Amino acid sequence: MLSLAVLCCWQSAAQAKPSLSLRINGVTPLPGDLLAAAPVISVTVVSSAAAVTGRITIDDTATALIFVGSSGHFYATLEVTPPLADGRHGLTIEAFDTTGGATYELVPLFVEGGPELTVIGSPLNYPNPFDPGSAGAATTIAYSLSKAADLTLSLHDLYGRLVAKMSFNAGANGGRAGYNTVSWNGRSDAGQVVGNGLYIYLLAADGRVVGRGKLMVLKR
Fold first, then answer.
1. What's the helix, strand, coil split of the chain in %, to 5?
2. DSSP secondary structure letter of residue 12
3. Which of 2, 74, 141, 200 makes an SS bond possible with 45, Cβ 3.0 to 4.6 Å?
4. Do residues 199 and 157 touch, judged by C-beta distance below 8 A?
5. Residues forming a β-bridge with 153
């Protein structure tokens, strides 16, 4: 006779819903990432069932996924055709077995095919307002680039005076295609904690400003 604890564990395992993961061109994507116009999407579903079905919806177009596999792991691959247009996109993946379903949503994703570097969307920073007074404090500035580029991030007060400046190489964090996050500790290039107030940050490449944002310093 099964004990109550063993019976509960057996019931939980039997009723476990499928789980799924996603890779695009071999990389796990994040919201805000840059996509190739014709990406290859790979889906993995972990399920105790004998078979799995599913679909992927890109924007408003749904396509059935054909899964193969066994021993609890099922795989499907889709090469997106026709190519996606430049601009903002979103995708939803759904997988189903006899125990239920699982959903994976990823929004936004961007396709940018133009030759010039652009910042996709608006740069943001968090926390904002930002208190640089405590040890180790920093605010994170996040932005997405249409392609890899040598990039400069400069911070200015409202009089336009340069406060701090950082440079990033193409392909490294800060200058890579897609999503980037960089930190500022609230200090000037001279090492002093800046005063309370509004600051402007500019993203520039090849002598051209490609993005800008605002952050508030508020020391408590």
1. 5, 55, 40
2. H
3. 74
4. yes
5. 166, 203
Domains of the chain and any CATH numbers: 17-111 (2.60.40.10), 119-217 (2.60.40.4070)
Task: Supply φ then ψ for residue 130, to 5 degrees.
Answer: -130, 130
Tell me, what amino acid is at 97? Answer: D
What average pLDDT does this structure show over 188-199? 94
pLDDT in tens, 89-114: 899 999 999 989 999 998 888 887 66
Length of the chain: 220
Q: Which amino acid is at 156?
A: H
Q: What's the pLDDT at 4?
A: 38
Q: Which of 82, 27, 30 is nearest to 58 (CA)?
A: 82
Residue found under tokens 């500035």? 141
pLDDT digits (tens, 9 = 90+) for 22-32: 999 888 888 87
